[in-house]
Amino acid sequence: MQSISMQWKIRGFFLVDLIILIFLAKSPFNFLILNTFLGYIPIELAFQMKKIKSVKSWLFLLIFILWLGFYPNAPYLMTDLFHLSLLDPHDFSNGLLSNSPRMWLDFGLLMVSMFGALLLSTYQLNTISQRINQTFKIKLTWILPTILMLASAIGVYIGRFLRIHSLYLFLTPTWFFKQIINMWNLRMLFFVAIITIVQLAVLWLLKQIKTAD
């Protein structure tokens, strides 16, 4: 019997996750349905890039641009953790955390979507970077992942604070870039730096796990 490929296992994971979210995620956490779907798009695009033999091909470049546009949706899910404040988790009668089943279900739904998208997308970003580095003989292997993560952190800022989805980049590019030009300030740069560092930390840990194996 032919074994199921890792790609189909991951697709199955997100399909099951989305089905569970559709049936179990209630307001105000039903935003997870759309955000998880958007977070999966760069993962699927990375699967398609893997099928292309040459990094220098036009098809690879086209999918890479699409992937880069949608990639911030994966680390964006990290910022959804702040919605946990909506759970009102403390039981003020005893000062401890509440053991409300609804609260812990919402917590679990958010954590599974966030970690799934973040870990898989980070792993794929590293794989894509390695292919490009090998093709163009780039010796400083951390430069490209850092640039891509910096770009994705800017994308997270755009989505979180300007409330602009990746689709606007392709639907209304002129309006999109006008918003980008006007967004730069010290608070924005601090946010971008923090999100970039968090992503780099996740990548470093994944590399250590791979090295240990």
3D structure, described in words:
It holds the Pfam family DUF1361. The structure is a single chain. This protein is mostly helical and 213 residues long. The chain has one domain (6-212). 73% of the residues lie in helices and 2% in strands. The protein contains 9 helices and 2 strands. The chain has helices spanning 6-24, 31-51, 58-70, 73-79, 101-136, 143-161, 167-171, 173-181, 186-212; strands spanning 90-91, 96-97. The chain has a two-stranded antiparallel sheet. β1 (90-91) and β2 (96-97) form a beta hairpin. The radius of gyration is 19 Å and the shape is globular. The mean pLDDT is 93.
List keywords for this structure.
9 helices, 2% strand, two-stranded antiparallel sheet, 213 residues, 2 strands, mainly alpha
Outline:
The chain is mainly alpha-helical and 213 residues long. 73% of the residues lie in helices and 2% in strands.
Strand order of the largest sheet: 1-2
Structural class: mainly alpha
The CA-CA distance between the termini, in Å, is 27 Å
Strand content: under 5%
By DSSP, the count of extended strands is 2
Q: Give the overall pLDDT as a whole number.
A: 93
Low-confidence stretches: none
List strands and helices in order, with pairings.
Layout lengths: L5 H19 L6 H21 L6 H13 L2 H7 L10 E2 L4 E2 L3 H36 L6 H19 L5 H5 L1 H9 L4 H27 L1
Antiparallel strand pairs: 1-2
Helix pairs in contact: 1-2, 1-5, 2-3, 2-4, 2-5, 4-5, 4-6, 5-9, 6-9
InterPro entries: DUF1361
Keywords: Membrane, Transmembrane, Transmembrane helix
Pfam families: DUF1361
